[in-house]
Structures are given as C-alpha cells and as structure tokens.
C-alpha cells in the first residue's frame, strides 16, 4: 500500500483514470460493432454514414493514447474494406 501522501493521491487518481480509460475503450469497441452491424444489414449508404461517425470516435480515442494509432488505423482500414466489398 502507498505510504506517502503523494503515493496515496496517485493511487486515487489512477483508479479514476482507469475507469475513464475503460469507458473510452468500450466506446471504441461499440463504434466498431456499429459499423459491422450496418455492413451485415447490407445497406452500403447507411454503413458509410455509420462509418464516418465511428471514424471520429476511433481517431479521438487513438489521439488520447488509449489505443495505439496503428491499431485504430488497422480497424478503420478493415471496416472500410468491408464497406467497399458491399456492391
């Protein structure tokens, strides 16, 4: 357990930050799932609209360092490829 006042405060802060990061990771996964669901529905126009909204969420979370920028880019690329495959 933390002994100094500074260490106790950092422990409190880390609990709060961990909860915040967890919510952002959940938002990332939800954004990806929304696009996948739209692709499965088969409507290309709707899938592209959902994709545009999801890209904003994915990029914002990657910029904060919650996920690595390459992981975000990989997800965006794969989602885009699935949308393009709808013809």
Would you spell out the secondary-structure blueprint of this structure?
Blueprint: H1 5-41, H2 44-63, H3 69-85
Brief summary:
The chain has 87 residues and is mostly helical. It contains 3 helices and no strands. It has one domain: Ribosomal protein S20 (Methane Monooxygenase Hydroxylase, Chain G, domain 1), CATH 1.20.58.110.
Question: What does this protein look like?
Answer:
Pfam families: Ribosomal_S20p. One of its GO terms (molecular function) is structural constituent of ribosome. This protein is mainly α and 87 residues long. It has a single domain (5-85), classed as Methane Monooxygenase Hydroxylase, Chain G, domain 1, CATH 1.20.58. Helices cover 85% and strands 0% of the residues. The protein is built from 3 helices and no strands. The longest helix is centred in the N-terminal third of the chain and has 37 residues, at 5-41. The protein is elongated.
Task: Looking at this protein, list some descriptive labels.
87 residues, mainly alpha, Methane Monooxygenase Hydroxylase, Chain G, domain 1
């Amino acid at each position: 357990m933390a002994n100094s006042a500074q260490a106790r405060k950092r422990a409190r802060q880390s609990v709060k930050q961990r909860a915040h990061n967890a919510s952002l990771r959940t938002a990332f996964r939800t954004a990806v799932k929304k696009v996948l669901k739209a692709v499965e529905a088969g409507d290309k126009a709707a899938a592209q609209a959902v994709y545009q909204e999801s890209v904003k969420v994915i990029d914002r979370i990657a910029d904060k360092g919650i996920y690595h920028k390459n992981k975000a880019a990989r997800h965006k690329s794969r989602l885009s490829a699935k949308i393009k495959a709808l013809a």
